[in-house]
C-alpha cells in the first residue's frame, strides 16, 4: 500500500462539474426536482379521501346549486368530462353547508337532489356520494414515480460524484499507458464507442489496469498524457482526469476545473428549479391550509 498523499481542496468549479456535469446528472436532477414541482402543483387538486376511508360518515340530503364543466378533465364535447357540481345541505343544527364535488360523466341539473357523504367532525371533507372531492382522481398520484425515478438516478450519480471527489482530493496520481483499444457495438451521435484500457503503476511499483468507454477516443490519445487518480489504500480503484466534465488540473494542494458552458447552464437551470420547488411547496401548503386534502 502506498503512503498517504496530501489532501487537496476541490474548487467550486470542480464540485459544479461533478454534481451537474453529464447527461445522467442532468436527467436525474431534472426528473427529481421537476417531478416534485409537478406533484406539488397537482396534489392539492387530487382526491385523496381514500386515505381516510375508514372514518365514520353519515349521509344527508342535499341539492345542486350550480354545474360547470371542469377544465381539468375536458370540455362540453367530451363525453368523459368531469363536472364541477356545487351543492348545499342544511344540517340538523340548522347550519347551511356548501361545497363543490366533481362528478364524472353524469351531468346533474340545478335543483336536483343528491346524497351528501359527511365525515363526522370534518365538514370540509363532505362530498356528493360517488363523486370526487377534488377534480383529479387518485390515479394521478402515479406521477410520484417521476421524482422517485429521478431521485434514484440522482442518488446513484451523487454516489459516483462523491467517489470521484474523494479520489481527486485524497488519491495518488499516476500516468497511464494504453494497453488495448477495442471498438464496441455502441454508437453515440454516429460516432463509435471505444473501450480503452490503460495500465498504471503505483508508487510501490504495483501495476493495475483501468478501462474507460468513450466515443471521444482522441481525447485520451492526444499529446497530453493520461493521468489517473487512484485510491492509495485500494489502488485498483481510480478515475481518469480526462473522463471528468470540463478541464481538470491537479495542483499540489488544490484541484481546479474549468466549468464548460453546458454544465454552467444546467447549474443555473437547477437553481431555477429549486426556486420553482419552493414556490410550488408554498402553494401546496396554502391550499392544504384552506382545505385539507382528505
TrEMBL record:
Domain of life: Bacteria
Keyword Transmembrane helix set for record: yes
Keywords: Membrane, Transmembrane, Transmembrane helix
Transmembrane segments: 12-38, 264-288
Protein name: DUF3592 domain-containing protein
Biological source species: Paenibacillus methanolicus
